[in-house]
Amino acid sequence: MLINLSELLKSEIGSVLEAKIKIPPQKLGEEISLAQPLVGEAKLIKQAKGVLVHFNLSGVLKLLCFRCNNNFLKKIKIKFDQNYVWPKGSENVSFEEEQEEGFLIKPDNMLDPWPAIRQEIILSQPMKILCKPSCKGLCPVCGKDLNKGSCKHIKS
Ligand SMILES: [Zn+2]
Ligand SMILES: [Zn+2]
């Protein structure tokens, strides 16, 4: 989905645009995917060089446990701010200094919120995702899920 900034671009610095966000279910990586649409709001505030966006979203992730290799669902709420800047050389902004870090607004004044949201979701999850802190994992010999009971190799 894209947010059209054409109107905001014409307004004064500090002007606010509210947009509804709905991201369809999709994969973010091997261990993480959106199980349901991610929904919420974005509040965009015009700045001198671009826009500052407050995101407030909620959804359900489907995650893969690092230890037992089972998929599980986890509700998430993500709230974060992200800066977006108009590309260098854009007629709307004159850049004297180096462009600071930030996501770029597309030349047609469209803002794609997904790359920043995707990054935020991935960063919000631990390196080693666990279905529960006490997950017993799989038996290294026979591969049995030790959460479901012990095997002859490992007694729980
Ligand atoms: Zn697990
Ligand atoms: Zn075993």
Q: What distinguishing features does this structure have?
A:
mainly beta, 36% strand, 156 residues, 8 strands, 6-stranded mixed beta sheet, two-stranded antiparallel sheet, binds zinc ion, 2 helices
Outline the structure in words.
By secondary structure, this protein is mainly beta. It has one domain. It has 2 helices and 8 strands, in the order E-H-E-E-E-E-E-E-E-H. The protein has helices at residues 6-10, 114-124, and strands at residues 3-4, 16-23, 32-34, 38-46, 50-64, 71-85, 103-104, 110-111. The chain is elongated. One zinc ion binds next to loops.
Could you give the topology of this structure?
Blueprint: E1 3-4, H1 6-10, E2 16-23, E3 32-34, E4 38-46, E5 50-64, E6 71-85, E7 103-104, E8 110-111, H2 114-124
Parallel strand pairs: 6-7
Antiparallel strand pairs: 1-8, 2-4, 3-5, 4-5, 5-6
The structure holds zinc ion (2 copies).
The site of one zinc ion has 7 residues, from loops.
